[in-house]
Amino acid sequence: MKMARYTRLYKILPTGLAQNFERYRFLPLAGKLKQRFTLYERFLDRREKVYLDWALEKILLWDKREPIAGVVHIHGDADLVFPSKYISNFIPVPGGTHIMIINKYRWLNAHLPKIILGEE
Asked: In Å, how far are 30, 65, 79, 101 from 37, measured between CA atoms?
């Protein structure tokens, strides 16, 4: 990510390819990959090129060194996009990846009420 930040190579990524997942539906994908692809298609409703370009730039140029006071940060301990070893002051979700809202919903349903009420 540091290299992408300084070289600004992210500006040439073909983010427009994400706008239409349907055109890739007929690619010969293996079971788990096909399943994940279907989930992305269903849950990633913000796929416009302008939005993705903006979001990618904001992520790569993020320069927040101190946690924001009053913010509760819930983060997966298996997130490869934003590894937890670089993050402090968060509530870990065991096995949670970058898409944990989709596949760790049981953990979130069980723990969110207590987190919101400050009991956890």
From this structure: 10, 34, 18, 15
Is the distance from CB of 108 to CB of 100 less than 8 angstroms? yes
Count of residues making up the chain: 120
pLDDT digits (tens, 9 = 90+) for 40-94: 777 676 778 888 888 888 888 888 788 888 899 999 999 998 999 988 889 999 9
Q: Which residues does 57 contact at the CB level (< 8 Å), separation at least 6?
A: 10, 11
Strands (E), the chain: 74-76, 91-93
φ/ψ of residue 93, rounded to 5: -105, 110
Closest to 97 measured CA to CA, from 107, 88, 89:
107
What are the extents of the domains in the chain? 1-63, 68-120
In the chain, the amino acid numbered 74 is: I
